[in-house]
Amino acid sequence: MSEKLTVEKGKYEGKRNSLIDVAHDALYIAKISSYAQGMALLKAASKEYAFNLNLGNIAGGWRGGCIIRAQFLDEITRAYEENSEMPNLLAAPRFAKVVNGSLGKLALLIEIAHSVGVPVPAMDSAYDYIVQLSSPVMVSAQVSAQQRDYFGAHGYFKIGGLDDPRTMTTSDGKIREFHTEWMLPERPEREITK
């Protein structure tokens, strides 16, 4: 495939040491995000199947007898010991502080990687997960709904805006549904509420 596809690749013009510093912080944030996603899955499974999982003990167990064995697991264990009911690992003050202070470095490293033609799907996913959690609106769900409308005229709901996640409703409380004619140049939208 490489001879069939041509991807424009730039050259990194920045300073090597600056890139190393950015990469260090970006990798740490991506690691936090990855563990947060994993712990969120365990928490959801525990709730769904009434497993009563102790996430702090799980992290501690991994530290003691698993291939992971990262020192980072001690921080996760402490976070869950301090608040076993936190909604997500990213809500732990120690991790929230790091993410809030350095998320831009993860974005920058992704941008640099893309500009030189290096795919970084795990970092993209880590960044997108954090950005989605920080938004009051499930933007990715909105995009998916519009894609479904484009491909199959399934319709979509509208929200009040990025700062107003409420779904638009009629005066009698019905959710308003819309369809756009995506292939027409003016892309007319019509309401299809039933």
Structural commentary:
With 194 residues, this protein is mainly alpha-helical. The protein has helices at residues 16-49, 55-65, 72-82, 93-115, 121-134, 139-152; strands at 156-157, 159-161, 164-167, 177-180, 189-191. A hairpin with an 8-residue loop joins strand 4 (177-180) and strand 5 (189-191). The mean pLDDT is 92. InterPro entries: 6-PGluconate_DH-like_C_sf (IPR008927), 6PGD_dom2 (IPR013328), 6PGDH_C (IPR006114), Pgluconate_DH (IPR006183). This is 6-phosphogluconate dehydrogenase C-terminal domain-containing protein.
Count helical runs.
6
Structural class: mainly alpha
Shape: globular
- Name of the top-level CATH class of the largest domain: Mainly Alpha
Q: Strand sequence of the main sheet, in spatial order?
A: 1-4-5
* CATH level 3 topology of the largest domain: N-(1-d-carboxylethyl)-l-norvaline Dehydrogenase, domain 2
Largest sheet: 3 strands, antiparallel
- Name of the CATH architecture of the largest domain: Orthogonal Bundle
Number of separate strands: 5
How many distinct folded domains?
2
Tell me what portion of residues adopts beta-strand conformation: 5-15%
Q: Mind telling me the CATH superfamily name of the largest domain?
A: N-(1-d-carboxylethyl)-l-norvaline Dehydrogenase, domain 2
Instruction: Tell me the helix content.
Output: 55-70%
* Spans where pLDDT lies below 50 across 5 or more residues: none
Note the run of SSEs as H and E. Answer: HHHHHHEEEEE
Protein name: 6-phosphogluconate dehydrogenase C-terminal domain-containing protein
Domain 6-phosphogluconate dehydrogenase C-terminal: 1-183
Family: Belongs to the 6-phosphogluconate dehydrogenase family.
GO molecular function: phosphogluconate dehydrogenase (decarboxylating) activity
